[in-house]
UniProtKB/TrEMBL annotation:
Sorted UniProt keywords: Disulfide bond, Glycoprotein, Hydrolase, Protease, Serine protease, Signal
Protein name: Peptidase S1 domain-containing protein
Species this protein is from: Petrolisthes manimaculis
CDD domains: Tryp_SPc
Molecular function GO labels: serine-type endopeptidase activity
Length: 473
């Protein structure tokens, strides 16, 4: 924890210094009051006296020794109280938890004014699939706050905020009291590879079984994709983001897919100096969700910090960009160390060698993911996803001058699409046994989301043997 800012000797003197008649006009949000409230019980008594002179009047709850409260319903027999300061436009809630010597514990909730109405409007639309925007008191997930409020819980509640109502705090909730409880599918836990030196043996054991099941399904044309989405932080744990050298922070320019503890597969054009215009790949990040956020949280669950790696070895396909434009667009990145597989970071299984796309999908759509450009032309900070239909070669090939190879497959054409910045990222068959179907490769004339024009992906099943032949322990 960083050291507290310089503090006045008492809150009372601070208020007097401000010469305020309305508490919300003071700059309370920028001070650490842990030391202040721990000084003396007499200070708290003085504070109580001062607050009685403020507007609006503040009444001291009977159970709050040395504190004050306008909401007695929060008081408990353990002499805990919540102090609320009301302002004209309440936007955010900051909780400062402290102890007043041995007499009482005061939970201070400071409601401060912010002008960030745009951010609040964005929060209102941020509830994920399976969640609803509901009053705080109606969300079972946060019920413990009402009986045991903590600073950490308040931080989580602020992140989950979905409404700008002044008195009735609302949050995104998947477990509404009296309503439908959201479900969160679990992601299979990876096992430690045997590392015998064979590329196949370096793949997770779950993938060896998935490959056998997928091969049988392909022969019988049985769709394995289940109808459901996991919309928490663990939804796409195999997605990597590639950072290139820049003056300050890495420039996040491409995506990739973790396929074992130490290997990421991506598009060759993402790591070929000619196509990167001289930019050098410097970092491979796993477990990222929001590139603008220091900590990624979903309700009461926060993900561990992302894992950063440097590329130890980059292996380009030898036929890349030789047979036709951006042909054999696939590359392997060996990380400088093994990734820690923790549910937020996990490997994605490869499809069986030579398997057909239609047989693997069984008529269902595939899902592409990345941090590439959106329809607004802006780069999102949060990992995006889109479901795309398979497009047969007869329909797709004419858009690319009939130059597509059997190792290239097409998806999209219905406005949803991959785009600049998504390159190298995964095209996935979702379900109980997710598989890496394709790698984002190219579009038409660098335009994205054109109606009727699908994008081109590298057909991973055509390169499975090449991938495993180039992996080492």
């Amino acid at each position: 924890m960083s050291p507290p800012l310089p503090l006045p000797t008492t809150i009372l003197s601070h208020l007097q210094l401000q010469k305020t008649t309305k508490l919300e006009s003071t700059n309370l949000a920028h001070h650490n009051y842990h030391q202040l409230l721990a000084k003396e019980h007499t200070h708290a008594t003085a504070i109580k006296s001062t607050t009685r002179q403020l507007h609006p009047p503040v009444r001291l709850g009977a159970a709050c020794a040395g504190g004050w409260s306008q909401t007695p319903r929060y008081q408990t027999r353990r002499e805990r109280c919540v102090v609320e300061f009301f302002s004209v436009e309440i936007r955010h809630i900051h909780l400062l938890e402290t102890m007043i010597t041995k007499w009482a514990m005061v939970m201070v909730v400071v409601m401060v004014v912010t002008a960030d109405a745009t951010r609040l409007a964005r929060q209102a639309s941020r509830c994920r699939s399976g969640q609803v925007c509901t009053p705080l008191r109606s969300c079972r997930t946060y019920q413990q706050f009402l009986t045991n409020p903590t600073a950490e819980l308040w931080r989580r509640i602020r992140r989950a905020s979905c409404s700008n109502e002044r008195r009735n705090i609302q949050v995104c909730c998947s477990d509404v009291i009296g309503g439908t409880t959201g479900t969160t599918p679990t992601i299979p836990t990876d096992t430690t590879p045997t590392n015998t030196g064979s590329g196949e043996s370096l793949l997770p054991s779950k993938c060896r079984r998935a490959s056998r099941v997928a091969r049988a399904a392909t022969q019988l044309n049985i769709p394995l994709v289940v109808n459901g989405e996991d919309s928490n932080l663990k939804e796409l744990p195999w997605t990597a983001i590639l950072g290139y050298n820049s003056r300050t922070e890495p420039f996040w320019g491409c995506g990739g897919t973790l396929i074992s503890e130490q290997y990421v597969v991506t598009a060759a054009h993402c790591v070929h100096q000619t196509h990167t215009q001289g930019a050098t790949l410097e970092v491979v990040r796993l477990g990222e969700y929001d590139v603008s956020s220091v900590e990624d949280c979903f309700e009461l669950t926060c993900a561990p910090a992302p894992q950063d790696f440097t590329p130890e070895q980059i292996i380009l396909h030898p036929d890349f960009d030789t047979r036709t434009e951006v042909s054999d667009d696939i590359a392997l990145i060996r990380l400088n160390k093994k990734a820690t597989l923790n549910g937020y970071v996990d490997a994605l299984c490869l499809p069986p060698a030579g398997a057909g796309v239609e047989g693997l999908l069984g008529g269902r759509e595939a899902e592409v993911a990345g941090w590439g450009l959106t329809e607004t032309g802006q780069r999102p900070t949060v990992l995006q996803k889109a479901s795309l239909p398979f497009v047969n070669k007869g329909t797709c090939n004419p858009h690319y001058d009939n130059t597509l190879l059997p190792e290239q497959i097409c998806f999209g054409g219905l406005a949803q699409d991959s785009c600049k910045g998504d390159s190298g990222g995964p095209l996935v068959r979702r379900g109980s046994n997710p598989l890496l179907i394709g790698i984002v490769s190219r579009g038409l004339d660098k335009r994205c989301g054109l109606i009727g024009i699908p994008a081109v992906y590298t057909h991973v099943a055509a390169y499975r043997n090449w991938i495993t032949d180039n992996m080492r322990a």
